[in-house]
Amino acid sequence: MTALLVVIQIVFFIVQLIILKSYSVYINIGLTILSIVVGAYIISRDMNPSIKLAWIVPIMMFPLFGGLLYILYGHVVIPRKLKKNLLRIKEQEVYEDLYGVDSNSAEILVDDPPYRLMKYTEKYSKAPVYKGGVEKYYSMGDKVFPDLIHDLEHAKKYIFLEFFIINHGKVWDDILEVLVKKVAEGVEVRVIYDDVGSVFYVNKNYWKELEKMGIKCICFNQIFPFMATILNNRDHRKIAVIDGNIAYTGGFNLSDEYANITHPFGTWKDSGIRMEGGAAFRFTIMFLQMWNTSRFTEASYKRFIPEIKEHPHIGYLQPYYSNPLSVEHAGESIYLQVINDARNYIYVFTPYFITGSELMMAIKLAAKRGIDVRIVTPGIPDKKFIYRMTQSSYKELVEAGVRIYQYKPGFIHSKVILCDDSLASVGSINMDNRSFYHHFECGVLIYMSKVIADIKRDFLQTFDECDEIDVSWCNRRRSRMLVDAVLKLLSPLL
């Protein structure tokens, strides 16, 4: 669609020069007025200032191309059925009677900085706080799948899987074999996968094939040719729930590269977390809410309540989600609050760093006030254009005192932020505007848990596997400065 708009703009220039030459003044006046009106509308919207600027520039320079591009990609357009079901879930509050089951938010000290963050997340992301139970952090995606398959094999009542990508190969084939077996045993199995995320890996009607196997399946927000306006809002979440007692989330998808069986971009580093107890059941509710956005079936979630097993409680967990209908943009707000509350250090894993001005300023100010800020990005890119956009921010970050590391062995897909030996977030949310504003995402805040030490150990080991970026590295790329400036201007559009 974008390529088509470029062609339309070029054709318009040619037609204007050859055929409509005598009317070109009036046409330009009309388009200029239209650009001003659209620009004023964008300025009036409640959105990130850098995103506003990134849209206004192409609209003013190329009114036809910029205007049509904005109509297609510039705002959240939720498909009618999806929006209807989202609102229906909100209005009926089918999960309200379960909200806060086993919640322990009142126990967190009011004078502790994470308290403010957790209260915000509880209020605006409907995310109760739970006592920590049995948690396990995975520093690599290939370490997740043996435990996940083991838990799937021991499911008694239900299995819920929600992933951006499923891809034929050893990982998915092994999981599918277990799912078919569990269906035969009477276990209820449901799968949600994203159509855009999986479009190159499974056929268009793959969900029907799974249904024939007895697996209830939804292909989220299916692709329709030339309907680009509804393709922005993807289900980027990663959730696995077994019987409501065990849940997984993180950055990994159900595909062989995440287990390092295949190596399209060197070593693929990802992360995940396994949890039990009340937090695991919260992911059950989150899955059912997403299920109902496409196939509204649940009048009540009570039948999925498990018998919560007693575990020694260390720390707290807060599963949370964000969606493009919310004005709060919980993912970005949580990252901002973690950065602003830091006292000693902030460590970040992210495959992409394409942020707005607020997050960029918060990171730079944290470094300037003496916080040890370190960000790890890929050494081998999966998307070269996006990689270049990420690198375009290096110089101003390094000059502000932020330490940037590129992961030498390959591609880092982890989405983790760690702060002060006490607070971390692990989930599906990238540090880019697509995750913050357009995608359905999820994660879990981890406070004073024993896995914090495991997460920190992973960061320290990873730093040793990286090349650290310095000012001289940035200066050697001065020839790219003009291109980088344009990329930084346009980066909020992605």
Description:
The model is unreliable at 91-97 (pLDDT under 50). α1 packs antiparallel against α4, α3 runs antiparallel to α4 and α12 (330-341) runs parallel beside α13. The relative contact order is 0.13. This protein has a 9-stranded mixed sheet, with helices on both faces. The chain has helices spanning 2-18, 24-44, 49-61, 63-73, 80-92, 113-124, 144-153, 170-184, 195-198, 206-212, 278-294, 330-341, 357-368, 384-391, 394-399, 433-438, 451-463, 471-475, 481-490, and strands at 130-131, 135-138, 158-163, 188-194, 216-220, 239-242, 246-250, 267-269, 272-276, 316-322, 345-349, 353-354, 372-378, 403-407, 410-412, 416-419, 423-427, 431-432, 441-447, 466-469. By secondary structure, the protein is α/β, with parallel strands linked by helices.
Which terms would index this structure?
20 strands; alpha/beta
